[in-house]
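User: Show me sequence and structure for the first protein, then do the same for the second.

Assistant: Starting with the first protein.
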Amino acid sequence: MTQVARASSQYLFLAARPDGGRKVGIRRARDARHLSEQLRRERLVALRTWTLPSWASTSDTVSLKDQSELHTQLAQLLTRGVPLVEALEATAKSVAASAAPRVERMREMVAAGSSFSDAASAVGIFDTVTVSVYRAAERTGDLGGAAKQLAGTTRRQLRIQGKAGTLMIYPAIVLTISLAVALLMICFVLPKIGKSLEDMGYPLPWFTQGLMTVGVFLRDHALAVGVGAMVAITVVVALRKVALEAVSRASRRVPLLRDVVLTQESARFFTVMAAMVRSGVTLSDALGVAVNALSHPLLKTQLGSLRTKLIEGGNLRTLIDTVSALPLPTRRLLMAAERSGDLDSAFETLASDMTEELERRSERLLAAMEPLLIVFMFLMIGSLVVSIMVPLMQATSGAMR
């Protein structure tokens, strides 16, 4: 436990390169001395180091892409009989530079006699689910098979993340463009036209005057507004866990979006179950780890209750039917697999099916969001256009008289 705690500090560093240049970066290490050792291996000399506060630190685990590469390399090497220490040495050269020191540290610990799962837990390279899978594989002696299974699991998770990213990119681009156009109109176009009409003696509607006042304030106090925006962004980053939890709660209540969230959580659950059961983990232990990986309250509560009753001696076939958060066909498939004793294949099948279902639901959600975004753009920019056109039409009609 001490090693894990010591491996959780993150540092901002300024280092000198061999060619005389400077390099700035962020690196995780047990302490400043350990950071200097890491940099020295890369032929860098630490000049200054700063410990980052916890709210500014990134996740303890490396990126999912690097984890996928690590699992893939280990699976290929271990299944061909390459010793674990040599496999880790080769793997350290195939991952990103930020993850390589952790893999190298893990290799050193394994060479010193630590088990692979203990070394992975100590350096914080994987989450608890992955460590549990490797620990179970060590008991069965099939570390290469576990790595192969986890490689497929991480690739599936990358697909899920990519789909979630796609869902967010389109609205973000549309909203950014809408906001930029609205600010340009309200700060520069509207005040200029309004001032010209006032100078000509034409009265302005109240909503045009209100938008002009806001626009002039934003333009004249741009620096203060910018600083305020930066402070707000900093507060959101510092309280990102609270903000993400609020967004998560809201997403579980919005029609269409809540179906996507539930499908994503179900895909995560079955992916974890498939990886753990294939590695020889007992069903109750696998359920304990998989349930902790969930964030959907209803699904987590029902599956947690299923595990508790299963440990107490309940019938799995009956307990599966009580998990109403899962679709009825999914429950029927699990019940049939339990009768035939083929739950591991059922978990794998459901993980793939849920991932495909997530893609379909995401596409439907994106299709539904497009008209909503168009309406939002119309309300934002259209109101500004109306505030300009109404006084212009009044001025034109007055001139014609």
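Switching to the second protein now.
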Amino acid sequence: MRNTMKVAKWEIKRNMKNKSYLIGLLLTPLIIIGFMVIGSFFDDSDEESSESTVVFVNDELGVYDDMVSTIEQTGINWELMQTDLTEAEAQEELEDSEETAYVFVDEEGLENGSLAVYTSDDIDSFFMSEVQVLTGPVQAKQMEELGLTEEQLAGISQGVQFVEAGSINEAAESGEEGMGSMEENPLQTLVPGIFGGFVLLSVVFTGMAIFQSASQEKKDKIAEIILSSLTPSELMQGKIIGYFALGLIQTLVSTVLLLPVLMWRFDQPLLEYLLVPELALYVFIAILGYLLFASIFVGVGATMADVTTAGNFQGFVMMLPFLPFVFIGPVLSDPNGLMAQIGTYIPFTSPAVLLLRLTSLEQWPWIEIGISLAILVISVWAFMKLAGKIFKVGILMYGKNATPGEIWKWLKA
């Protein structure tokens, strides 16, 4: 273990003195910051927001004046107006309308806890989140009618919400589950998941440099000198640990530079959302993903005479970290679907698919998570063993790239 750490420290020091690594270390977050800052100058969202949304309210409860006061206090850019149109007539009017919505506040909707909202096709996607501020006056009216007894307050605690008319029945069936999704800020689950994905990308892409490191030592013919004072296993493990540390350094520097800019750009307490218990699981998944790919990279990298002469087999191995992109669409459309579950159990895709699923689901499937992590841990151990066999022979083989057949013979030896 002592020699392993020496190799790790040597890899870190060597790369920290490398101009290419240092430039990439700073340039990557600076480019991202540059795009965000430049984009803010060309952002026309303020101009678009100046166009107010016309909201017609069919008020049967007498809460229209309170709604107007609520909108004025919140500063939402709406033009609130009363209407006597029925729901059918409102739908006809919306066919030829832009930036328009109809809200129906009646006794039936109050009892069901779902007040119908009809919107024009071009309405902003955030409108249904904004319209929830009108639940305050409705609930106040509900409390006034009930008389504020303990039993009645218990009934009011179930709340009321505005829903798109096409999903009224679904909202009534989902009950409290639907309300939970309205109240929760999606950034609370997205931020730690995105950070976990960023850690995975950083350490995996940094780990790809193991390919070049192993083949470069063979090309320069210094592998024999290195192996005269330590074993091939110590050299391989040292490289994996060293490049893992380099990936974490990249993540740390990028986070320090990017986080303040992101907090300014989105005006959200991102650090508060980031430092949550779930982050530990995300980072653990990212580490397992790195160890899996790094063991493959270091093993296959030792079979190449020169990184510039990589064959089809080596090129295919380099593409393994990109396999999860096949599952992005199916996972986002149905995080609990068959494709999402398949991607969760395949070792090469499970780190990224797991991170994507966990940020999309309200209730985590702990059994699936446990099975997936067990498969990942076993896969890391197995590929470490296999990579050790390949590395032991391949690091001292010169002249040509090893073929898949030759690698298979080494594994069976």
